[in-house]
Amino acid sequence: MRTEPQPGSMSGSTNVTTELKSPRSIVWARRRASLADFWRLYRRQRAGMVGLAILVVITLLTVLAPWYTDESELNAANAPGGRMESPSTEFWFGTDQIGRPILTMVIWGARVSLQVGLVAAVLAVTLGTVIGMAAAHFGGWISWALMRLTDWFIVLPSLVLAIALVIALGPSKLTIIIAIALTSWAGTARLVRAQTMAIEGRPYLERARALGAGNWHQMTRHVLPNLMPLVLASATLQVSSAILAEASLSFLGLGDPSAFSWGGILERAFDAGAISAGAWWYMLPPGLAILLVVLAFTLCGRAMEVVLNPRLRGNQ
Amino acid sequence: MTTTTPPPRRYRRLAAAAVALALPAAAISVPGAHASDDGSTTLVVGKVGLNDIPHMNPLDSGWVVQGEFNNLMYDPLIRWGQEDYVPAPGLAESWEVSDDELTWTYHIDPDATWSDGQPVTANDAKFTFELLQTNELFNSRHGDLVDLMTSIEAPDEQTLVITTEEPNAILNHMNNIPIMPEHVWGEMENPDEYTGEPGQPTSGPFELAEYSPGQRVVLTANPDYWDGPVAYDELIFQSYETTEAAVQALQQGEIDFLDGLNPEQAGALEQNEDITVSVQPSRHLENISFNMGARTKDGQEFGDGHPALQDPAVRQAIHHVVDKQRLVDVILDGNGTPGVSWVAPIFTEHFWDPGEDAFEVSADAGNQLLDDAGYTERTDAGIRIDPESGEPLSFRLFYHSDRPTYADIQDFLVEWVAELDIELEPIPMETTPLNEETDAGNYDIAFGGWNYGPDPSQDLAYLTCDRLPDEPEPTDLTFDFYCNDEVDALWLQQLQATDPAERAEAVKEIQRIVYQDSPQIILYYDHAIEAYSNDWTGFGMLPSSGGAIAKQQAAYGYAQAVPADAADESSGDDEGDAAGDDGGAGADGDDAAASSDDDGGSNTGLIVGIVIAAVVVIGGVVFLMRRRSTAEERE
C-alpha cells in the first residue's frame, strides 16, 4: 500500500519570482508558494500520507473499474456465480443470493458512495461557509437569526432529520445528497463564523474598508482566501461523515434500489439473511470499504488541520 | 380473504433502529418459552409485522396477522376444510340450500359453547350478520357477504335461515366470518370501538389474555373448548422487527415457531438439529401487470398507458419470453412454482393447470407473434414501432423500491424482453406513490404481489367490467382495468353456482381465458418457509397435504401443535407412527451431522473475518490515537 504519490512534483515553484510582473501573477506566485509550503508540511504527517495514499488507490480502482471488471455481472440475469458462494479463487469475496460477485458490487458501489459523499460534503460546506461568513460579517439581527438557525440544526438529531427528509422527498441519489447536506452544514457554519470574525479583526481589512471595498469585495478577496484552508480541512472531514450518513440511510432501505452503494449492499445482505447464513463475505467487504474510505478521509482531514493550525504543528 | 399489502419493510427496520436506540438490551429481551415452573406449557410464536395491526377488533380486520388471531378465538359457522379447502362444519354442524337456491338453512352444533359456558345459538349468528349489515365500519369489510342476505331468521336456538334474491355460492362457505357472542357484544354501545380488551368470551380454542400493541399478544387456551381443547396452555405471539432478529431468537430457543423465512435463513436453521424447517406451497404470488387502457364504464379514457399494451399480441409476446422456472430457481432458490393465473395451486379444486396450453418460453415464438401482428417497423435503435400510434414499443416498468426481490427480477425482464426488440425502462418507486400511479392508470407495466383466495368470487371480481370506475378517477378495485364479456359471464356463473363442481368449472375457465389474454403475467407462487422447535410437533398445515402453518384462514396451524414430550407419551400405543417420527428425526440428525463440516467452515470463516475486521479497526484507532498523542507531546 506504500505507493507514495509523486512527492516532488509540486514543490519546484518555491523559487524566488522577483521580476516584476502583473499583480495577478504575483498573487499566483504567492499562492503557489504557500501551496508548496503546505505540501512540505503535509508530507511530514505520516498518517496524512497514508490516508492520501489510500484515497489515491481507491480513486484509481473506482475510476478504472470499467477496464478490469465486468459491470454486466451486476445484472441479475448475468450473474456468473451460484447462490451465496463463499470466497474462492474465482470470486474473491464470494457471491450474493443471486450469484453476483461481491467484489464487483463493492468496486462499483464505491462510485455511488464516493459520489454521494463528496457532493453532499461540498454542498454542506458551501452552505455552512456562506451562512457562517454572512453571520460574522453582517452582525446584528442577521447574525442572531442565522446563528439561531444554525443552533437549531446542530441540536436536531441529524440522522432522524435525514430519514424524515428522504421519506418526504422520495428516495433517490439526489434526495440523499440533499438530505445529508441539509443536516450537516451547521457545524461548518459555526466554525466559519468564528474564523471570519477573527479575520475581520485584522488591520488589512480595515484598510480595505477605508479604501472603499464593498461587502462582496471584502468577502471574496480578503476573507474567503484566508478561510479556504480551514474550509478545505472541514470539507475533507465532512466527506467521512457524509459517506457514513449515506451508508446509514441506504442500510435503512432509503437508498436508490437500482444502485449498489455500500450501505445498499449491506441492506441487501441483511434482507437476504446473510447474518443467519453466516455469509460474512457478503457483509465484511462493504463494511471494510466504508471503514477504509472514512478512515482515509479522516486521516487526511486531521493532517490538514495539523498543518494549518500552528499550535498543533508545534516547533518543527 | 385478500390482504392489505404490508407496508414497506424498512419502516419496520426504522422502528427497529429506533427501538434499539431507545431501549437498553434487557428491556427487549424475550421471556423464555416452553414449560414453566407450574407445569403449564406455552407455545411462543415469533411474529414480524405484529406492530402493523392497529387494534384487535375481530370484525374490522384487514391484516393477515389479525386474521390469525380471529381464527384462534372465534369459530366461523363454516370452516375451510383442512383437506382441500372444501367447506367443513364449524359452529354449524350442517347446512343446506332450498331447491330454488335462494334459502339457506344452517344447523348450529348443539355442543358449541362460549368460553363462559353459554351455548352458541342461531341468535348469535343472526346478531353478528345484522351488525355487519348495519355498522358502517364493519360493513365496509364484510359487505360482500352480508349485503346479499335479504332476511336473516333464527326460528329456534339451533336453526339459522338466510334468504337471498339471487343464488350465491358464497353462502356455501360464509368466507370464514367470525360469529360474536350476542350476550356480550349486544350490550356494547359502539362495537366498532372495541380494540382488543381481554376477558371476552370466545367460541374458539383460545381466549385473549393480553394485547400489548406492537409488542405481544397472549392467548390462553380454553380448557373446555367445545370442539376439543388444544394440547397446551398458552400461546404467545411475540413481535420482532425483522426476520433476522427472530431467526436468532429461534436459534436461541426464545421462540418456538417462525414464518416468513428466506432460503438462506432456512438453510441456516436446517443446520440446527433442534429445529425443523417446513417448506410448503402458499397462496401468495408475484406478478407483473399491463395497463389495459384505463377507462370508465362508459369508455372514457384516462391515464397515460402505452396503447400497444392493449394489443394481446404484445402481451402474449412478452409472456413468451418470461422464463418463470428460471425466476423460481434464481430468485426463490427453487422454493416456489412457476405462475399460471390468479388461483394458487394449493386450491386444488379450482386451480387450472395449463398443460399443453402453457406459453412456451421462446423468443422466436414471441417475435413471430409480433411480426404477424404488424410490428415490423423499427426505430434507429432497433426498437419495434407500434404501427397504429407510431410510438416505439418502449414501456415503463414500475417496481417497488422497498422490495429488493423486484429489483432483481426486473433485471431479468429487461434482458428477456429486449430479445423481442421491445424496450423496458425500469423505474423504482415507493409503494405508496406507485399504487397511486397504477390506480390512476399512469403506468405501462407494474409489479405486484397478491394473497389469493380461498373464495374465487372476491378475487376474480377484480377482473370484471363492473369494477371499472364510473368516473375517470383512480381506483384500486380493478386489476389493470381489465374487461372481458366472456369473463364477466363466467364470473356470474361461478358466483351463482351452488354446486361446487359447476363452480370449479367456471373458475377454471376464467383462468384459462385470462392466462391466454395475459392482462397480467403471474411470475410464481412462492412457498411458505417456516421453522419450529423440535420441542413441538403436530402443527397443522392447510391444506393438510402440504401448505402453510401460519397465515391460514383457519386455526389448524397453531391449534394442532403438541409439545413433543406429550406426543411421545401418548404415542405408546401407536408404535408405527412413533417409529416413523423417530426415523424422520434421525434422518434430520444425519443431515445435520453430514453438513456440520460446512457449518464449522463458515463459522471459522466468520471468526477469521471478525478478527481481521477487529484488527483493522483497532489498528486504525491506535494509529490515530498515537498521532494525536504525539501531537500533544510535541506541543
Automatic annotation (TrEMBL), chain B:
A single GO BP: peptide transport
Gene Ontology cellular component terms for the protein in this record: ATP-binding cassette (ABC) transporter complex; cell envelope; periplasmic space
Location of region: Disordered: 565-599
Signal peptide region: 1-35
InterPro entries reported for this sequence: Peptide/Ni-bd (IPR030678), SBP_5 (IPR039424), SBP_5_dom (IPR000914), TAT_signal (IPR006311)
Parts of the chain that traverse the membrane: 605-625
Principal localisation: other
Domain Solute-binding protein family residues, every copy: 87-461
Residue ranges with Acidic residues bias: 566-580, 588-599
Domain of life: Bacteria
PROSITE patterns reported in the protein's UniProt record: TAT
Molecular-function GO term, any one: peptide transmembrane transporter activity
Subcellular location, record wording: Cell envelope
SUPFAM superfamilies assigned: Periplasmic binding protein-like II
Keywords in alphabetical order: Membrane, Signal, Transmembrane, Transmembrane helix, Transport
PANTHER family: PERIPLASMIC BINDING COMPONENT OF ABC TRANSPORTER, PERIPLASMIC OLIGOPEPTIDE-BINDING PROTEIN-RELATED
Family: Belongs to the bacterial solute-binding protein 5 family.
Protein name: ABC transporter substrate-binding protein
Record organism: Phytoactinopolyspora halotolerans
